[in-house]
User: What shape does this take?
Amino acid sequence: MSNMQLDTLRRIVQEINASASLHESLDIMVNQVSEAMDVDVCSIYLLDERNQRYILMATKGLNAEAVGTVSLQVGEGLVGLVGQREEIVNLDNAAQHERYAYFPETGEELYNSFMGVPVMYRRKVMGVLVVQNREPQDFSEAAESFLVTLCAQLSGVIAHAHAVGNIEVFRKPNSLSNYKTYQGVAGSGGIALGRAVVLYPPADLAAVPDRDAEDISEELELLDHAIHSVREEIQSLDHKMQDSLMSEERALFSVFLRMLDENALPAEIKEIIREGHWAQGAVRRVLDKHIAVFAQMEDDYLRERVSDLKDLGRRILASLQEADSGHRELSSDSILIGEEISTAALVELPVDKIAAIVTTEGAANSHMVIVARALGIPTVVGVTELPITTLDDVEMIVDAYQGRVFIHPPRRLRQRYKEIQKEEEQIAKDLKQYETKDAITPDGVEVKLLVNTGLMIDVVRGVQRGAKGVGLYRSEIPFMLRDRFPGEEEQRAIYRQQLSHFANKPVTMRTLDIGADKDLPYFSIEEENSALGWRGLRFTLDHPEIFSSQIRAMLKASIGLNNLHILLPMVTSVSEVEEVLYLLERDWVAVQEEEQVKINKPKIGIMVEVPSVLLQIDEFAPLVDFFSVGSNDLIQYLLAVDRNNPRVSSVYSHFHPSVLRSLQKLVKDCHRNDRPVSICGEMAGDPLSAILLMAMGFNTLSMSSSNILRVRKAICLTPMSDAEALLEHVVHLNNPLLIKSWLEHYFKNHGLADMVKSNRMVTA
Assistant: This one.
């Protein structure tokens, strides 16, 4: 693609991003493409999924009256052909093609050349962009490349419009209601009705939400104080740099001070505050307007001033946030909204007041989602089109089974979801009877159910729900909640608490597993591909002082309880385990000498996450006491899919035949070596997959406390003979969706319909 085409592409995308509505975006698109490519016609057809038709939404060259009235069935005409093939159709004489469809109201008979390009978003056809010319000719490869690139850039805009309200996008702009629907990825299941509370990072202009001012005079006073503080800060910087910078280089400080003059930026910001907006939102609006103007300028020097403007905006915002008492108080129906909410940010909040979580980034098995699942908070992630800054205090419904978010939901929809909530409450009541039961199949096979912990609430709920021990204690969580590495004594107290609550029951503590989506706020690891990088055991072996401190704390915490098992994450090779065993032996001897007490040597296990381990069980078995599958990571490595990337979330499935077959082989290899094998990933907490794991011969299943009762009920109602027959059948199927469907069919016909999430799905 030439530089001229790239510049044109950038200009078109910039104009569309600055447009006020979908309809304006589409009009800009057809006009700009028509001009840039010098074609007689450019049109856009959007797919109305509800009615299965392509509707002409914008055109330059065809009859304007046809917009909104001309439509084709999904299999009709050349537009339908583009959608069916999901690829470009480039014809020099369109009228001769068998799929050509003629609509007199468009005046289309005048045009011979035709090129249609599908607008794709996450493998779905959202619409078709068409260019036409009077003269018969093939459009060039460069023209194809230009349109493909443009459609890829614009697919998000069209997908957003499609998600906004399904059929509403096909009505005239003035008939659009406030009600909108957004699609994301289901994280932690559940339903929530409530109001949005936007969580935004400090001093991030782009993330500041729109919010009404409670007291305009107070907001004006806050702004005055902030402007005064920033002026003093800049004057201080100017003075400090007198001896270090030339006067020309310090000119920026003078520019900043002029911009902070009462008649400059502050006057504009105050005008917006007086209209009823809070100070932080007013700063964002004014700075955004100026930044957009500078970004469009031809002069390189002036265009570079955008970063200076942003810096000034951040300084004002930081001062305002320092004076702010914090985020709005949470109530019992608060739905947290943010670009990305970290585990630490989540657990610092009053979790009992969080009704649901919605983020524009992240994926279904990120660490935050795993913690949200443990807390029983419905969570939807990867809602990429969500306009965060406009949602503060907006009424919402979160359907975390379907991964859908409804903004300003109508009364009918609210009523239906309230009914679903009542059904959920009834299911929860019915499950309470399983708190005191053992997980024993009707034909007498017992399965041990353990709990995954990290927070104390996991422990409390795990004990309450009859967990037989802890299958995975995520030791990184206490590390994530501090502003430094916790000391040995701090760790000992935390670990002792965990071990004491499950006295006489096994507690498996995983050594520090940071990296990838588990960052420490004080030890960030920046990597191109963090999932394959410096994480888990790779990190701790490079920092033996951190590893030894943790092992010593665990050993001291276990004195007199003797229920400690230690689990090693992200093991790749035998040599790593040999190195760990040396360090463990050294620390075990040292701690006994220090404490003058005999400590039972804990059992040592490794996590089966890296596929290489699957092929070396015979070599690992003599070194370790047990194996534990971390299914979340094992699946992402087996399927080569980043589990934190919402774009490929549909590829990630624990029902994939390669996953089931690998696990089946693993169990056989472990049992042949007389080593127990458990599974502690999210796969264990899904009742559908849990009965397959039981049939494979897993000794124990470990899961979030929120899933224990559901899995126990599934086991109590599923004979092992049925589970083995199901496993024998599904491992020969080649499609994850087919495998899941087969299991759901069994559940619905054997008293387990309430375990199948699809039963509670609602269409808006």
